[in-house]
Amino acid sequence: MLTLSKYLDELKVLKGLKNDSQLAEHLHMSRAHVSQLRGGLHMGEVKCFEIAKLLNREPLELLSLNRAIRNQDKRLSNYWLEVHNKVVQNQFG
After folding, report:
1. Residues 6+ away with beta carbon under 8 Å from 12
2. Which domain holds residue 35?
3. Whole-prediction pTM value?
4. Could you give the number of structural domains in the chain?
5. pLDDT, tens only, 33-66
6. Which conformational region is residue 71 in: left (phi greater than 0), alpha (psi within -120 to 50 degrees), or beta?
């Protein structure tokens, strides 16, 4: 299952946050919403952009993964996952 957990965890470490409650407060969202994101719910594009900037990442990295999670059509989901993988490879490869 695709989730944004990796990025949420990275942000917690970067900001020295101890738990998801502190993360939720930092991101101005509910603790329940953080749990939903960890469970595979997509987030708003503005929030993806904001988190990417906080992590000093290319926003397309998070936006494309978010689109892959969001899409019901497997072809589109796979397309966005390919975009995500290409962005990650370009940044770290």
Report:
1. 18, 19, 20, 22, 23
2. 5-92
3. 0.90
4. 1
5. 999 999 999 899 999 999 999 999 999 999 999 9
6. beta
